[in-house]
Amino acid sequence: MPGLPIDPPAASASRRYGTVAIALHWLLAVLIAGSFALGLYMTSLPFSPLQLKLYSWHKWSGITILALSALRLLWRLLRRPPPLPAQVTARTPGWQLVVRRWTYFVLYALFFVVPLLGWAYSSALGVPVALFGSMPLPDLLPVDKALAETLLKPLHNAGAYALAALAGLHAAAALKHRFVDHDGVFERMWAGRGEDSS
Question: 108: part of which helix (H) or strand (E)?
Fold first, then answer.
């Protein structure tokens, strides 16, 4: 409710995410934003050696995102994230807390679904994925170009746009906490001194 005091710095620090969780969060954020931008750019180019190189980089980025997402999920399961400060929970309408919970759930699902769809699309297209150009990965599906073009490619694209939209919503909410609410929520996921909670 309005008028409730904000947590003192010491209390806020005790609810911070830990160093590993913060590092994984921001590393994934940069990789996902970069991979999305790269995907938009490379598909706008005519067929060329440059386009082929960018497609390879996009695949490497996707596999890296997949691996880091698995590591982040494992870390989250092993180290429970700190709860929202009681004052923030008390001021937040119930529907916003539900939206927050489901946004996190869908984001985590898309961290895995989007790269896996891209990998499956590449496999069905008959183009193997080789991590960093030297580590061939197994094909997820047999070659089926019709399946690749009519189903897997549209699903991968739709998933990428959905992930970008939800990440944008998440970023907007974080910035609101930082510059409008001033409630310490943003700082929980920002590098700084404080107790490692996750």
Answer: helix 94-125
